[in-house]
Write a structure and sequence with these properties.
It holds the Pfam family DUF2628. This protein is mainly alpha-helical. The protein is 50% helix and 12% strand.
Length: 164
């Protein structure tokens, strides 16, 4: 099973936002490994493009200083690191553009993940409605303030050590 995060476009009514939802798979991206510049341009990740160009320039400078073998090793390490983080950088870019995180879903394929997400109902965060307040735990009867926590240090009620 693959994990997907779901993102909705900014300032879009909930009914239309569901049609334009983006499902981004978590994990390694083969597309970003093989063609990193194309991946960045395809997804319009301009700040990431600037970082990739800077990293490529730094690798070129290091290769000239240390030799071609070091440049090859650095290029491979950078390509693997970028492919591992490419989808996370895509999520970051969407968040900067105002896209809303709507939740996560799992599926064997993208279609299955979409079906599962919409079958379970779009979460309140996706529709723009406020989330319900969490339920408060009921106080335990007979628990006095002096008996609440033991052993946190000086100054706390019920502390094992006396306050100085």
């Amino acid at each position: 099973m693959k994990l997907y995060t779901v993102h909705l476009p900014p300032e879009t009514p909930a009914a239309k936002a569901a049609d334009k939802a983006l499902f981004i798979r978590d994990g390694f991206s083969w597309f970003a490994l093989v063609l990193p510049f194309v991946y960045v341009l395809w997804h319009r990740m301009w700040w990431v493009l600037l970082g990739v160009v800077a990293a490529a320039g730094a690798i070129e400078v290091a290769a000239r200083a240390a030799g071609p073998a070091a440049g090859t090793i650095l290029s491979i390490v950078f390509a693997l690191a970028f492919a591992t983080e490419a989808n996370g950088l895509r999520r970051w870019t969407l968040a900067r553009k105002g896209w809303r995180y709507a939740g996560t879903t799992v599926g064997g394929s993208l279609e299955e993940a979409e079906r599962r997400f919409f079958e379970t109902g779009v979460p309140a965060a996706a529709t723009g409605r406020p989330l319900p307040a969490p339920a408060q735990a009921a106080p335990r009867p007979g628990l006095a303030a002096r008996d609440s926590i033991i052993g946190l240090g000086p100054g706390f009620a019920g502390s094992a050590r006396p306050a100085r």
